[in-house]
Design a protein that fits this description.
With 86 residues, the protein is mainly alpha-helical. It contains two helices and two strands; from the N terminus they run ααββ. α1 packs antiparallel against α2. It comes from Promicromonospora alba.
């Protein structure tokens, strides 16, 4: 049985590594996004005004929501669609 214990430890290690990478990516993207969004919002407010900036931000948010809703993911060689079918 030592062989199966080694495999379970390996699988656990791979799972932890994947979560660690995702957490690091999220943290880095959040920091970069916060830095860019503040600067871009300031420039947009200065040249376009608050209303236009709000409309542009809403449009970008809607586009992102649509991309997430209709995204296709590839994991371990298997393609799957995250679309809701009804």
């Amino acid at each position: 049985m030592p062989h199966s214990h080694s495999l379970s430890q390996l699988a656990r290690g791979v799972g932890i590594a994947a979560v660690g990478r995702a957490t690091t990516l999220f943290a880095n993207a959040s920091t970069g996004g916060a830095l860019l969004s503040g600067a871009l919002a300031g420039v947009s407010n200065q040249y376009l005004g608050y209303t236009a900036t709000l409309v542009i931000s809403g449009g970008i948010t809607l586009l992102a929501a649509l991309l997430f809703a209709f995204a296709r993911t590839e994991h371990a060689g298997h393609s799957s669609s995250r679309r809701l079918t009804g």
